[in-house]
Amino acid sequence: MDCNLIKELPFWDKLSESEKKIFSESCIKKEYDDKELIYSPERECLGLIMVSSGVARVYFTDEKGNTATIFRLRKGEYCILSMSCIMQGVTFDVEIEAEGKCSLEIIPLLVFTSVAEKNMAVENFSFRTLTEKFSYVIKAMQKLLFMSLEGRVISFLLEESEKTDSNTIIITHEQISLAIGSAREAVSRIINKLSKDGLITSKRGKIIIEDKKTLEKLID
After folding, report:
1. Short-list 199, 177, 196, CA closest to 188
2. CA pair distance 137, 181, nearest whole angstrom
3. What is the domain class of 147-218 according to CATH?
4. What is the pLDDT of residues 155-172, one digit of tens each?
5. CA distance readout (Å), 4 to 83, 116, 128, 169, 208
6. What is the pLDDT of residue 71?
7. Residue among 13, 176, 35 at smallest CA distance from 99
8. Quick check: 207 pLDDT over 70?
9. Where are the domains of the chain?
10. How far is CA 114 from each of CA 90, 122, 127, 128, rounded to the nearest angstrom?
């Protein structure tokens, strides 16, 4: 099947016909199972990835094996941190895994860089996207360093609600703990407390936000 998301990339209309052909013919579609590793700097530089269905989780791993989510990629979103291993000046490593079933469209590294070297629109896209994603890295680090666990849980739930445009968030306690870099037991205690206070309703595999205004005040 042909890749469709590449035609929605910001620089598509600024490609020559030959460059469009190169991208279209080299684009790869891949399917991943839940928790399957999509990218790690220890394996290979992947290229530009675009999510056609499902969710991909971008995260840090510390020396003890603990993880903290930087951001999630949903349908139609893209990321170039999957080729950060060849980017000069990028001194941090991230990994990407599927969260549930996930389908990607991938423009291989060598193809993307060869076009970027000749097309300024593609090169500018790379810098803008890298800067945008790096801001998420800084934000994630700030939360880990300066925000309480309760604040991190609430902030995560509110952000997920905004991204999905729904007060019902399909997620487990384990996924939240992975997202904010904390122990599952500690996260469950916070969720139980928020539930008792009537601010959320916690059910198996999902959390419903009941009082968004009060939650927002708790992290102001």
Report:
1. 177
2. 13
3. mainly alpha
4. 889 988 988 889 999 999
5. 21, 20, 22, 28, 34
6. 85
7. 35
8. yes
9. 5-145, 147-218
10. 20, 10, 15, 18
Question: Count of CB atoms within 10 A of residue 171's CB?
Answer: 17
The answer to whether 5-145 and 147-218 have equal CATH topology is: no
Rounded distance, CA 110 to CA 87, Å?
13
Quick: pLDDT tens for 120-141: 999 999 888 877 777 777 777 7
Reported CATH class of domain 5-145: mainly beta
Give the residue among 77, 96, 119 at the shortest CA–CA distance from 35: 96
* Structure-block tokens of residue 77: 């979103």
Compute the mean pLDDT over every residue in the chain, rounded to the nearest whole number.
86
**φ, ψ (nearest 5 deg) of residue 160:** -65, -40
C-beta neighbour count of 143 within 10 angstroms = 18
pLDDT of residue 87: 56
